[in-house]
Amino acid sequence: QKKINDPVHIVGPPQLPILGNGLLFMNVGAVEILRQLQKLWHEYGSIYKIFLGSKLWIIVSDPKLIEEIATNPKFLTKSDDYDVMEEWLGRGLLTSSGQKWFTHRKALTPAFHFKILETFVPIFDAQSDILIRKLEAQSKSGKAFDIFPLIKLYALDVICETAMGTSCYAQLEDSAYAKAIEKISEILNWRVFHALAWNDLYFRMTRKYPEYKKQLQIIYNFTNSVIKSRKNNLGINNNEISTITKDEDIGMKKKMALLDILLQTEIDGKLLTNEEIREEVESFMFAGHDTTTSAITFLLYNLAKCPEIQEKVYMEISNIIGDDKTTKITLRHLNEMKYFDMVIKESLRMHSPVPFIARRIEDDLLLCDIPLQSGTNIALGIYLLHHDPKYFPEPEKFLPERFDINSESEKYANFSYIPFSAGSRNCIGQKFALNEIKSGASKVLRNFIVKLPQPDYEPIVKTEIVLKPANGVYLNFEKRV
Ligand code: HEM
């Protein structure tokens, strides 16, 4: 790894020889890491640096700088931090760069065409019916329970059945894959912030390594079984994908699920290799369920915390869908939930599912007049930005009206509100996610009044690639009659 000179014009905490600021983050756990990054932000502001050993990170949470990074093609490459995910995610859309990223993004965009997204709405609805049954069963005891694992299995079933066109019955049979994702995210996050574990050789000697390999195998087995199952459904022989019809815009013309596009589309005149398919499936499975789990979990918490807002959302939903709990949700219903849109936006601000993302610069350049050396990693502090009182007055208050498009104060378009990132590397699944969140959460609200276990209950948050509750989110569910 290239040694980057200390950019003396950027502020940051005092460094020790060799370890830099590594001691602030080493072996402290994901809750403390987020707190530490927030503390440094309070101390040093919207651009600061830290050295994890010899690895320099510049942490940016200023909308102007973020705009420059999100819109300038010189910042399209993901940072070195994503390398720790390579054995797991390969170089799928989330982690790839250059021509590979560009051609895959172009080929996969049709999988998120609004006509395709519409066909997913009945799947969201059917899966949320199972979620309701599970919540009902758990709530019988009258005690509060942790909703995070239940939401996770719902989100996993949704991504499998929509994007992968395959049922994985996670809600009915539980999922070793879901648990393996939790474990591997924890290990990789520890690696990113550990000044020594960054090194492959060191990592292999740690006690975490055998556990990491074990979880990786569980993940591989699961994704391979998803691919195999879809190939069987499509009647594709494992080694003979090339017999399938070839068509430039195959996804768009035939309205195919993501995995079908991966199996059948040609990029640069060639079908994707089995490994390329695996890395995309791996990336979409992860990016498509861990994030929405976080979003729905914290949304339900925020609604429980603010009963008047919950009631207002419920009234909107019941005005649109009616009181019959068995009525199936349609895309039209989802599109009409305007107040709920604002509430979801505010929840994604308060509990941004992807708290940090990062890029690496490939050439020496100026970032809005700040000189940076080639190889520098720049983290975009989405979570920090979304809690900045300069852009969100009283940031710890849950105020959906901030996002009222009819009000003067709705002014968050200019890169100060970026839960799905921004620019050409933004989230490809944004609309998918918003429909899934709205569909799942509205079903919960039609069936239950969601309550906090105690008035001052507040889950502790941690960041392990995705924002998560450190000890679950415990809520009470009272049946709506
Ligand atoms: C609330 C839910 C979600 C949030 C907050 C979210 C957020 C984000 C963010 C911040 C990025 C940029 C990542 C980076 O620069 O490293 C991203 C990228 C991505 N997201 Fe999402 N996401 C969500 C749901 C989804 C879903 C449901 C899918 C798939 C169905 C998905 C697939 C992806 C993929 C493949 C990328 C990489 C795009 C690229 O680099 O071209 N995401 N997402």
From TrEMBL:
- List keywords of the entry alphabetically: Heme, Iron, Metal-binding, Monooxygenase, Oxidoreductase, Signal
- Cross-referenced SUPFAM superfamilies, in alphabetical order? Cytochrome P450 (SSF48264)
Xref: PROSITE patterns: CYTOCHROME_P450 (PS00086)
One MF term from GO for this chain?
A: monooxygenase activity
Q: What residues does heme bind to?
A: 427
Pfam families per UniProt: p450
The Swiss-Prot or TrEMBL record lists the needed cofactor(s) as:
heme
Where are the annotated coiled coils located? none
What the record says about family reads: Belongs to the cytochrome P450 family.
Output this protein's name.
Putative cytochrome
